[in-house]
Structures are given as C-alpha cells and as structure tokens.
Design goal:
By secondary structure, the protein is α/β, with parallel strands linked by helices. It has 14 helices and 10 strands. It has an 8-stranded mixed beta sheet, sandwiched between helices. A two-stranded parallel sheet has the order 1-2. Strand 6 and strand 7 form a beta hairpin. Helix 9 packs across helix 10. It is globular, with a radius of gyration of 22 Å. It starts with 12 loop residues before the first strand and ends with a helix.
C-alpha cells in the first residue's frame, strides 16, 4: 500500500534490512516460505550472529544463508576498475602479473589503507581522498561501539569494548597470541570469553585457534585456549591503530607496520572470505617456532607464512613442513612467484587464488 508495488510480483525483490532490530520479522520468514513462496525475500543484518543467540525463534530449514564479508582484494580491483589486472590474476598468469608487480603492489597498498567495507570503498571511489576515507572508517568504528551497549547489557558491553579496543595492541606484539592481561590488568579468560564470542558472532573479530599437530581434520587438534584475533577488515585495523595516510607514499613501509600485523590480517581475511577453509595457526610448546596459518583443504594440509615485505626467511615454516612431511609450504610475500623444493612463494596480491590454485599445483595440474 505504501509503495504502490505488488510484493508478490515475481520481478519484485523484498528486502528486510537490519532484520535483527525486529525479532518478529525473523520469525515471519517461516510464514513467507510456507504461505508466499513466490515472494523473493532477502533478510540482511550486520549483527545477525548476535541476534540469533538471543532466543529468537528462527525458521530452521526455511532460509538459505549467505555470509557477506568485506570486499576481498580481487573485489577491490573490480570496484576500482582494474578489470584487466583482475582477469590476469584469476587466470593464474603470475608471470604476466609479476612483470607489472609495482602496479599490483600499489593497488594492494591502497587496499591495506581503504580495506573492503563497501561504504568506505564507495567513499574512496567518490572522493579519491584518503582523509575522507579515514573519516568514514572512524564513523563505522564509532557506530560499532554504539552497538555494543545497544545489544548487550552494561557489564558485558564494557568488556566487549575493552576486548575490541585491545585488538590492535594484541596484533602489534611479536607473539600475537591473545593475552587477557592486555585487555585489562588481572583479566582472566572466565571474565572475557563471552565478550570475545560476542564480537566473533557479530562478525567484527576473526578468531584463529592454535592446533597442536597437523592432522586431519585440523578441527580435531585445535587448542581453544590459545588463539589469535584479527579484525574483520584490514582498513578498519589501520583506522583503529590511527595509522597515518603518509605511510602510503613510503615504499613498502605500510606492509611491515607494527610487525606485519596488517599483512597477517589481510591474509586471514582472504582465507576466511573464500568460505572454503578455516584458518588455524601452529606454535611449538617449548620453543619460539610458529606458523602463521594452517588450513586443510580436501585431504591436504597447507602451512602458510605471511611475510610483510620481500624477506623470504621462513625457518619455522621449513621445519614444520619437513618434520610433518607436508611436501611444500606456502609463503606469501611481496616477492615474485617462485617455486622451491620445500616452499612456493606466492605474491601477496595473488592471495585470492587460494585455496584451489595451490591444491592444483600440488597435483601437478598447473
């Protein structure tokens, strides 16, 4: 009646935006599926993961789920009109891409700063201004903090805020394992587990658990008491860290900012956004050895090292690969594509090829 549009017209798409604001709207999806199956209906919500844990009746089996992540680097290339660069990557033509590596690295540098939040990317496209882009990122960060108190009671909201604000500092440490005392002096797991889970459910944090050994499936060997956290978006990590736009003009400095935290966050994002792998990390019990990411795909286990610059030293990765008979590991860096007997170096800008590309290489299909 309000719009003059027939919602049952097969050419009409009905969108319930921010559906978590109305629990009855969530419940009504079952009625739509049963009583009006011809209605094309999309329900969208930025905090649905939280809403669905609040006792809301959800129509199980009646709804198809689609997780939407920030734009990946591939999608950023598409959004910024670099279609030919994207096509080259998607074909896996790394020789051609490497010949234009500085252009890819320039776009990756922009992506590290801008990130993949759609509204932020649009601001960057509309204005071409890094300062305006940062203002939009800061608005998003402010809105997220406002949501903490909106969707959680006062005591939990304060803990959520403390965990959220501690994330950049956690990633700035050499050993990026989550430390509760970095949230608040004397903090313990029991008091902050719910806050961490809230942020994970809301999609604001990515949690990467430690594995004790590389066995199939990796989930059977995870140690949930040891984990790392990453932000949902590398651009928001830079904004939360107050990273100045001036680093964009300083060569490769941006990639190594606060001990390569941006690079690790970027690689984690790329892996998660595929929807095909769950990243873990490995660290030795009694030594400093650590592998940034480990994932299983099919019947293979892949160990990944994320290098912030062109430094190709990866002692821990090599030991891990050789001791566990994994064949070859994968190193992501600013260096060109290169194959060695124990490792394959893939340029950071080609991370979107994972996991299929590396799986095919192992099988000799590439």
């Amino acid at each position: 009646l309000y719009t003059g549009v027939n919602a049952k017209d097969p050419n009409t798409l009905v969108v319930f935006d921010e559906i978590q604001e109305c629990p009855r709207a969530l419940t009504s999806l079952k009625s739509f599926a049963e009583r009006s199956p011809e209605t094309a209906l999309v329900a969208a919500g930025s905090l649905l993961g939280v809403a669905l844990h609040r006792g809301v009746s959800f129509p199980v089996g009646k709804v198809d789920h689609l997780l939407i992540y920030p734009l990946s680097f591939d999608e950023f290339l598409l959004a910024t009109g670099n279609n030919l660069m994207l096509d080259t990557l998607r074909r896996g033509d790394l020789a051609l891409a490497d010949s234009l590596s500085e252009r890819y690295i320039e776009q990756l540098r922009n992506y590290y700063f801008v990130g993949g939040m759609p509204e932020v990317v649009q601001t960057f496209l509309d204005t071409g201004s890094f300062s305006e882009t940062r203002k939009q990122q800061n608005r998003l960060l402010f809105d997220y903090e406002h949501d903490f108190s909106k969707y959680a009671d006062a005591a939990l909201a304060e803990k959520i805020r403390l965990v959220w604000n501690s994330a950049p500092g956690q990633l700035a440490r050499e050993n990026k394992k989550f430390v509760y005392s970095a949230v608040r002096t004397g903090a313990r797991a029991r008091g902050y587990e719910e806050a961490i889970q809230w942020l994970v459910d809301a999609g604001l944090l990515l949690r990467v658990n430690r594995i004790t050994k590389p066995g199939l499936p990796l989930s059977a060997y995870e140690d949930r008491d040891a984990f790392k956290i990453y932000l949902l978006d590398v651009g928001l990590l830079g904004a939360a860290s107050r990273l100045d736009a001036s680093v964009l003009v300083d060569g490769h400095e941006l990639f190594s900012e606060f001990k390569g935290a941006l690079t690790e966050n970027y690689v984690c994002q790329e892996l998660v956004a595929t929807g095909k792998v769950v990243p873990y990390y490995w660290s030795a019990e009694n030594s400093s050895g650590e592998v940034d990411f480990v994932y299983d795909y099919g019947r293979s286990i892949v160990a990944v090292e994320a290098k912030a610059t062109t430094n190709l030293k990866a002692k821990s990765l090599r030991l891990f690969v050789e001791r566990n008979h994994l064949g070859r590991g994968l190193r992501l860096s600013l260096s060109p594509f290169k194959e060695q007997d124990w490792v394959v170096n893939l340029p950071l800008y080609a991370a979107g090829l994972l996991p299929e590309w590396f799986a095919q290489m192992r099988k000799g299909a590439i």
